Hints:
elongated, two-stranded antiparallel sheet, Arc Repressor Mutant, subunit A, Fic-like fold, 306 residues, 2 domains, mainly alpha
Amino acid sequence: MAKRKDKEEVLNYIRVLEKLDTLPQKGEITETAIKNIQKMLTANAIEDPQDCGAYRSERNKYVVVGNRLTGEISFRPPANKELPELMQDYVQWLNSDKVRKLDPVVMAGIAHYEFVRIHPFVDGNGRTARVIAALILRIRGSDTKQFFCLDDYYDVDRNEYYNALRTVNPHNRDMTHWLEYFVEGVAVSIDSVRERVARLSVERVRTKKKGQIALTKRQMRIVEAINKNGKISISDMSGMFKISRQAALKEIGKMVEMEIVKREGQARASYYIIPDYAIGYKALERLSLRAHSLRSVQAPRSNLSN
């Protein structure tokens, strides 16, 4: 039963990520969207189906967070009757102009913590929080929905994840340590994804041309260089292969004719990209650089609640 539930949770998570673009309404995250996220995440993987897409209410037992084996309670969320007001405040905060001025990675980290703290559902709160974080990054311009999965990092050491959540000071809302942990997770996840995308891109080129045109070793090195750096220039190729600019132009010209790469820019400032890959790579590159630059962050205070 447990293995079946785990399998359903993974499949549900994948389905939700595939529908990420359909969840916000006019660029905003609503309570309806949040309920739909939890409903999709817990479908066929929750004890009481009535708890899918519904906040915990007076009919539910009070929910606490703790160790099932030892019985130790690590967190007591707000009372059921407080949830309507808390969630209304949370959504207003998410969509406020003030919050949108924050760095998107920092915003996602704060939103993640605040949602887990409110704990509005009987089950699926952590997964819903991570989808909300991914959705924020998506709305703010990170084209990562097909690859980016925060769970890959946070599931490695669940104790460390919960310990990081508990470091937030309940009195002054200092989230510095939690955000450092969260940002580290984004950085590590994105770096892993970039490597995965690079491998997929190389395989896509090979599959596309299978049975038609065989790529030379030099051409495959060009593809791999673009995967690594996002683009390649004539000067890059001249230095890489110790050849003249004319020879580099001739080599890349063949790849343009084969529709493997596309030229962008003008004259000597021009460079070459892989069309199907470039947009996603650039978004990942931007998000990776941002996350790495934020690894030592002094967190802004959240004023969602006392």
